[in-house]
Design a protein that fits this description.
By secondary structure, the protein is mostly helical. The chain folds into two domains: 7-87, no CATH class; 91-119, no CATH class. Helices cover 61% and strands 0% of the residues. The radius of gyration is 22 Å and the shape is elongated. It starts with 6 loop residues before the first helix and ends in a 32-residue tail after the last helix. The protein binds zinc ion. Residues 95, 97-98, 100, 110, 112-113, 115 line the site of zinc ion (ZN).
Length: 119
């Protein structure tokens, strides 16, 4: 018989999967946004100068789209576990920074990461 999974951890796992899926979507859009004009330029045979020809006055919008999806995608991918802990907070006493269980520890700082504890 397997040990039943804590409903809180199950909920946090679902949130984590959603966050990671969204991060992946953002990264795919970012890679596509960055790669498309480069591939088109090569196809047109005019080198990277044709990016300006392709996008004209929308060049800033293209660059904004690429960076605007790349940066949040990378942040979400790197910190998805932290976001999941933040979105689905623990009922038991645990460090809000690293998730380490505090138990009876009454100190000001987490023994695992040194983060400030709120009792
Ligand atoms: Zn900690």
């Amino acid at each position: 018989m397997t040990h039943p999974i804590d409903p809180l951890l199950r909920r946090r796992h679902v949130v984590l999967m959603i966050l990671r899926s969204f991060a992946l979507l953002l990264l795919v859009i970012a890679v596509y946004s960055l790669a498309y004009p480069i591939v088109r330029s090569v196809q047109m045979g005019q080198g990277l100068n044709s990016i300006g020809v392709l996008y004209g006055s929308n060049l800033h919008a293209w660059f904004g789209m690429a960076v605007g999806t790349l940066v949040p995608g990378v942040i979400l991918a790197l910190f998805s576990q932290w976001f999941a802990r933040w979105i689905v907070p623990g009922i038991r006493e645990e460090c809000t920074h690293c998730g380490h269980e505090i138990g009876d520890h009454a100190g000001e700082r987490c023994t695992e990461c040194g983060g400030r504890l709120r009792h």
